[in-house]
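Anyone else keep sequences and structure tokens together like this?

Example one:
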Amino acid sequence: MEKYQKLTGIAAPMPLINIDTDMIIPKLFLKTIKRSGLGKNLFDEMRYNGDGSENADFILNKPAYRDAEILVAGDNFGCGSSREHAPWAIKDFGIRCVISTSFADIFFSNCFKNGILPIILPQEQVDILMKDAGKGANARMTVDLEAQEITTSDGEVIKFNIDSFKKHCLLEGLDDIGLTLEKSDSISKFETMSASERPWV
């Protein structure tokens, strides 16, 4: 998993509340077990019309936000079913950070496992960031994970909290497999010892 440090990019405002995982990636696209290729179907039912053409009114289809790397969202983001394809689609699109007042627990946890930083802030601070994101492509926001700070395009700094272990995993690019491999020496020593002590196993 790619290491996460400081991100400076375009932030897209999406003030809808209760955006569930089926809205993020409809069940039609859950047949794959690959983490790549799902970005084109992110928010599929909102991004595209019935004939497959783009919905020009959807935020990520607007020229200013096509390259958004930060999403400022409404309350209860990622609710619904526990599909891991939701963070896969977000990451594949290019979004590395989602900011909201609250997240569904499973989605929140899955974000960290897939290199996405979900940030929880009070409503008044989300409102500040939502307004800043509304300025378009010229208003670039910076998210500094090490310092735990978000800097708006106007230079306003907003601090955020994050679990120290989850922060470590993102900074070092460690998913569940990476965490296991950190203990590879200990695992090898145990297997060697176990094989000599219990050769019949």
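And example two:
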Amino acid sequence: MQKFTRMKAAAAPLPLANVDTDMIIPAQYMKALTRAGLGKHLFRELRFAHDGSERGDFILNRPACREAKILVADRNFGCGSSREHAVWALTDFGIRCVIAPSFGDIFAGNARKNGLLLIRLPDETCAWLREEIALAQYAPIEVDLEAQQIRLASGEAIDFEIDPGDRRILMEGLDDIDRTLRHADAIARFEAAL
């Protein structure tokens, strides 16, 4: 899993509440067993018209946000079914961080396992942040996990809290297997004693 300490990148405001996992990646695109290629189906129904052409009004289709690595969403992002493919589609597209007031519980667990940083901020702060990003014409913002701070192009900073265990996992780039292997000696001693 890729480490996350600090990142400066374009952020895309997505002022939609209750974005469920089917909206993130529709079920018909979940046939793959690997993560590669799922990003092209991210927000499929929002990004593309029925004929396959891009919808110019969707934020990730705008030139300034095509390479966005940060998404500033609204409450209850990632609700719905437990599909891990939703996180895979976001990360395959290039999204490394989602900022929102709240997240679906299972989505949050899948994000942690796959190196996607989720930052919870109050509704008003997220709304203000989306406005500031648009006013700054999508200038890059910095997300500093080590300092637990978001820095805007204007110089303003927003502090955030994150679970210390989640922070460590992301900063060290540890997936479930890596965390288990850290205890390999203890596991070997246990097995030898059996």
